[in-house]
Amino acid sequence: MAKSTTGVKTDTIARLQAIVGDDCATDKKILADYAAPGRVPVCVVRPADTAEVREIIKLANETGINVVAASSTGPRFRGDTVPAEEGVIVDLSAMRKIVRVDRRNKVAIIEPGVTFGELQAAAARQGLKVLMPLLPRAGKSVLASYLEREPILAGKFHWDMTDPLLCTELVFGTGDMFRTGSASGPGSLEEQWSRGMAQKNPTGPASADFVRIVQGAQGTMGIVTWASVKLELEPKLRRLYFTQSDNLKKLVDFSYRVNRAKLADELLILNGPALGAILGDERESVRTLAGKQAPYTCVYCLAGYDHLPEMRVDYEEKDVADIAQACGLTIGRQIPGASARHMMGLLDAPSAEPYWKQRPAGAFREIFFLTTMDRTPSFIGLMDDLVKRHGFAPENLGIYIQPIQQGRSCHLEFNLFYDPSDAAEAEKVEQLFLEASAELAEAGAFFSRPYGAWSKIAYARCPETVEALRKLKEILDPKGVLNRGKLCFGEG
Questions:
Q1: Which of 172, 198, 233 is the last residue of a domain?
Q2: Same structural domain for residues 174 and 214?
Q3: Does any domain span residue 279?
Q4: What pLDDT sits at residue 4?
Q5: Could you give the number of structural domains in the chain?
Q6: Is residue 481 situated within a structural domain?
Q7: pLDDT on residue 33
């Protein structure tokens, strides 16, 4: 049988075309959007529904092709949707239905191609708001973000690591379709709705919790074709505040106290370079604004809802002011380059172009992991030492701290901004990235989303987990057709 120049049989590509029709692309310009150096997919297929996804995976089981799911538009920074070896991209961005928005139960059912902007518009019509990560790309899939456990700004509403993701419909590597949580039945979605069900309980069927298996798995266990996600009520009144300090420990203490009392809806901490990247729109303005900020800024938002919103925000404002005074901090509604209203508008929307992490220098490398708030100063001190050791400019190091799970733990992120046209600087950043990742892990950083080189760091520490995951992989994807070579599922 004839083969294409890539090694995949031309008959296989023809059969993929038979499944998705004209939505099968082999054009080099299109493939380049999904590629990394030395790794270009064979083709890109865009299924229209779950049935076509199942047929693609069944074909993969028959032919042995490597299937990599993607749902966000490019550029792609982390490599989880770039084939580790020759593969076919299953682009789910054409599946963009918002199936349902349920105000009573504060839940929406969405397909993978739905972006944050699209879901925000639909939710707003029902008086609901979307739980946002920090300035997602305009083309970022909501479902992809939640599956990858990107932290949301509203830690107050983050009860469990799976939040805001609830129930899912997914196709395992065997080609079998499966529904999780209360969506598993009995009956169709429409029949469940007629009985008052809302697909809000993620656990099930029975005591199983397959969402935890597919979440964070980078598409190696199954492909999610729709999911229900949590929404919250749209506040009637919101006020945003800043508190700045050169002493991070004061802001950590402040964050703990505010989160413990559940006073702020959104709360995050940024250093000067990260804040400048968010406020500026091009390199010069980013550097100017970053240079005017305090070393660290805590941004938080108080909200009032349907009942006595002004009274609620007024008393919360006084409570937070008391906490700030006890921590030796002052509160304001203005910082250099941004009013409270302006900052709120930025945090409520996807990132404008260029993407905020690209604004300081054109490119970036990011290192992020989970820890606890009290340990962030020591990790930042370690990173500062590494930056000095490698001769990297401190003003190009962005820091973002996001309390999660109501402040019990946090997402700590370092962004290394650099000029991609400077080969020497790019090489310096790569070496810093690799060395910092290893030393931070040795110091206790938990890489819960192990992209690329982090997979060896994360899984080398827990061989029992690797053994358990490989057993699950053998059950759910016995022929290894889903995103082959990622996580701990490489050769050996």
A1: 233
A2: yes
A3: yes
A4: 43
A5: 3
A6: no
A7: 85
d(CA 218, CA 149): 11
Asked if the structure places residue 480 within a domain, the reply is no
Q: How many CB atoms lie within 10 A of CB 154?
A: 23
SS (H, E, C) 142-170: HHHHHHCCCCCCCHHHCCCCCCCEEEEEE
C-alpha to C-alpha distance for 123 and 118, rounded to whole angstroms: 9
Tell me the pLDDT band of 5, cut-offs 50, 70 and 90: very low
Query: Could you tell me the end-to-end alpha-carbon distance of the chain, in angstroms, rounded to an integer?
Result: 30
Residue found under tokens 């079998």: 176
Q: CA torsion sign, 184 to 190 to 191 to 194?
A: positive
Task: Return the CA Rg of the chain.
Answer: 23
Could you tell me what percentage of the chain is helix, strand and coil, using 3-state DSSP and rounding each to the nearest 5?
40, 25, 40
What single string gives the DSSP state of each residue in 459-491? HTT-HHHHHHHHHHHHHH-TT--BSTT-TT-S-
Q: How far apart are alpha carbons 235 and 130 in whole angstroms?
A: 12
Q: Is residue 56 within 8 Å of residue 16, measured between CB atoms?
A: yes
**52-81 pLDDT tens trace:** 999 999 999 999 999 999 999 888 888 888
Whether 451 is in a domain gets the answer no
CA angle 436–422–351, rounded 5-degree value: 70
Q: Over the range 222-233, which residues count as b (16 or more CB within 10 Å of their CB) and which as e?
A: bbbbbbbbbbbe
Using CA atoms, how far apart are residues 30 and 44, in angstroms rounded to an integer?
A: 8
The count of C-alpha atoms lying within 13 angstroms of the C-alpha of 453, restricted to the half-sphere facing its C-beta, is 13
Q: How far is CA 98 from CA 109, 113, 129, 165, 329, in A?
A: 6, 9, 15, 15, 44
E strand or H helix at 222: strand 222-233
> If DSSP codes are grouped into helix, strand and coil, which group holds residue 428?
helix
Count Cβ atoms within 10 A of the Cβ of residue 445 and give its class: 0-12 exposed, 13-18 middle, 19 or more buried. Answer: buried
For residues 82 and 156, membership in a common domain is answered with no
Question: How many C-beta neighbours within 10 Å does residue 169 have?
Answer: 23
Quote the domain boundaries for residue 200.
98-233
Q: 68 has which bridge partners?
A: 89
Domain containing residue 245: CATH number: 3.40.462.10
Residue 78 sits in a domain of what CATH number?
3.30.43.10
pLDDT in tens, 270-290: 999 999 999 999 999 999 999
Residues 313, 387 share a domain: yes
Q: Are residues 90 and 104 in the same domain?
A: no
Question: Same structural domain for residues 146 and 271?
Answer: no
- The answer to whether residues 359 and 425 belong to one domain is yes
DSSP state of 235: P
Q: Are residues 410 and 368 in the same domain?
A: yes
The structure tokens listed for 36 are 């990394």
User: What DSSP string runs through 338-358?
Assistant: EEHHHHHHHHTSPPPSSPTTT
